Amino acid sequence: MPDDLRSTYLTCAEGRLHVYTAGGRGSAVLLLSGAGVDNALLSWRHLIPALAAHHRVFALDWPKQGRSLPWTGRVTHDRMLRCVTEVLDHFALDSAALVGLSQGGALALAYAIDHPVRVERLVALAPAGILSFPPVVHQLLWLTAKLPLLNRTLPGLMLRSRAGIARFAEQALFAGPVHDFDDIVDEIHAEVRAAGAGSSDWQNASIGPFRMRVDLRPRLHLITCPALFIQGDKDIGVKLRHTRAAAALVPGARLEILEGNGHWSNRQSPDRVNALVAEFLGPPR
């Protein structure tokens, strides 16, 4: 981590919103992590120092994750988007580049659609919000999202031990060796102890009984800023075909496929991801 990594807390009606900051010059970059058992440092531990030398870096802990606790009420799609606006406004940023993973990728895409003048560049890693599921599978996922027993209690039981977390990470997040795997397991274990396990409010609300409530595909053509998609070809959560199709809908978007990578390419292949993001953001401005 960079020596100048700092914490800032924004006071909101529902609780406190935590943001890490690093780097004192250059263009602004806001990093948006994933859903479930994740937080800003879990997602961006390696990217923050890679960017901080040439950019002002901001990494948001979503409500109910990391240090954004306590938080009351449901965190809806619109509330998540407002979190992005609150961070930009608090730090007096007219605009920034957005880098988002999974849930964070979906919200980065949605923010670029809804607030184009505030997004300079966009990087989406294995983004959510671009998926649909066949009948029956969809209804089973909807039922899971509706029942706390399935979306919180059972995941909590599965992830209550380091061994359970290691199995989850190997099966769901990665598709090959990870050099700091033990550290990742420890980080996930700490997040589970602090915030629990299970799907996020955004995930649970994004799926309706018959269709996805959050489906960005019909509006992706409205994105006007330069966009980069990064996708592991072995990702079992967000399949390559979905990200390829989504990237084709964004005018001028670029797709980078990382062979042998799973859902968390940012932690499985940090040097490769860091280089792609840094090159795409360009030289200091």
Overview of this structure, please?
- The chain has 285 residues and is α/β, with parallel strands linked by helices.
- The chain is built from twelve helices and eight strands.
- An eight-stranded mixed sheet has the order 1-2-4-3-5-6-7-8, sandwiched between helices.
- The model has no long low-confidence stretch (mean pLDDT 94).
Keywords summarizing the entry:
285 residues, alpha/beta, eight-stranded mixed beta sheet, 12 helices, 8 strands
Broad structural category: alpha/beta
Overall geometry comes to globular
What is the succession of H and E elements? EEEHHEHEHEHHHHHEHEHH
Strand order of the largest sheet: 1-2-4-3-5-6-7-8
The span between the termini is 22 Å
Average pLDDT number: 94
Q: Strand count, sense and closure of the main sheet?
A: 8 strands, mixed
Low-confidence stretches: none
Alpha plus pi helix count: 12
Question: What is the beta-strand fraction?
Answer: 15-25%
Question: Into which percent range does the helicity of residues fall?
Answer: 40-55%
Number of strands: 8
- Provide the gyration radius in Å: 17 Å
Short description:
With 285 residues, the protein is α/β, with parallel strands linked by helices. Helices cover 41% and strands 17% of the residues.
List strands and helices in order, with pairings.
Elements: E1 6-11, E2 16-22, E3 28-32, H1 40-44, H2 47-52, E4 56-61, H3 77-90, E5 96-101, H4 103-114, E6 119-125, H5 137-146, H6 148-158, H7 162-173, H8 181-195, H9 201-206, E7 227-232, H10 240-249, E8 254-258, H11 265-268, H12 270-281
Parallel strand pairs: 3-4, 3-5, 5-6, 6-7, 7-8
Antiparallel strand pairs: 1-2, 2-4
